[in-house]
């Protein structure tokens, strides 16, 4: 039986979503929910800076997955579809309760260096969670979105670009700028 397959852990996210969309398989839906719930909450917290609101947005995200399951396109990855729904749900929440939005950025090639990465990691490790959240909150929205996606799931730059409607290079640039902004701001607070 197909539903039993969802409980055995042998199905991909796309297959689980297809089982849910085609057969209303609740076990498949629950597996997807439990797999992504925490990372989506962390992502949403980066928009709201309120744990309860972030949890509410993730709940709304999964309600949309449930409600629009027949709109799921199995030719696309479930993860990208889910993260796009979550991002849009967060943006809808921002429209209702606006925060400062940023300007758009040009696609300028930037170089990542291991030294930049290690300095940022050291500062993050030395900083408190509150300091990090405050710094993330000061980043322009597009940088914050890219950084949060980069931090919270194993999405490729191509998948992140699909979620953010940007090229993979533009996403790399946004993540790089966000890291530089954090490095500057965390370094300046010491």
Structure annotation, total helices: 10
Question: What shape does the CA trace take?
Answer: globular
The Cα radius of gyration reads: 18 Å
Mean pLDDT: 82
Low-confidence stretches: 1-6, 100-116
In short:
The chain is mostly helical and 190 residues long. It contains 10 helices and no strands. It is globular, with a radius of gyration of 18 Å.
Map the helices and strands.
Layout: H1 2-7, H2 13-23, H3 26-48, H4 51-67, H5 78-96, H6 114-126, H7 129-138, H8 141-152, H9 157-164, H10 168-188
Helix pairs in contact: 2-3, 3-4, 3-5, 3-8, 4-5, 5-9, 6-10, 7-10, 8-10, 9-10
Molecular structure report:
- This protein is mostly helical and 190 residues long.
- It has helices at 2-7, 13-23, 26-48, 51-67, 78-96, 114-126, 129-138, 141-152, 157-164, 168-188.
- The radius of gyration is 18 Å and the shape is globular.
- Mean pLDDT is 82; it is low at 1-6 and 100-116.
Provide the descriptors you would attach to this structure in a database record.
190 residues; globular; mainly alpha; 74% helix; 10 helices
């Amino acid at each position: 039986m197909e539903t039993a397959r969802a409980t055995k852990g042998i199905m991909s996210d796309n297959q689980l979503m297809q089982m849910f969309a085609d057969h209303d398989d609740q076990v498949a839906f629950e597996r997807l929910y439990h797999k992504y719930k925490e990372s989506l909450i962390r992502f949403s917290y980066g928009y709201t800076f309120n744990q309860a609101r972030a949890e509410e947005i993730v709940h709304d995200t999964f309600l949309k997955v449930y409600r629009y399951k027949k709109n799921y396109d199995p030719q696309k990855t479930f993860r990208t579809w889910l993260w796009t729904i979550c991002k849009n749900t967060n943006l809808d929440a921002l429209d209702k309760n606006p925060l400062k939005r940023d300007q758009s950025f040009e696609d300028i090639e930037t170089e990542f260096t291991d030294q930049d990465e290690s300095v940022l990691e050291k500062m993050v490790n030395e900083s408190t969670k509150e300091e990090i959240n405050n710094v993330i909150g000061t980043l322009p929205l597009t940088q914050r979105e890219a950084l949060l996606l980069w931090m919270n799931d194993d999405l490729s730059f191509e998948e992140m670009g699909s979620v953010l409607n940007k090229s993979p290079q533009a996403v790399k640039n946004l993540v790089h700028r966000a890291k530089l902004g954090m490095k500057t701001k965390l370094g300046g607070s010491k």
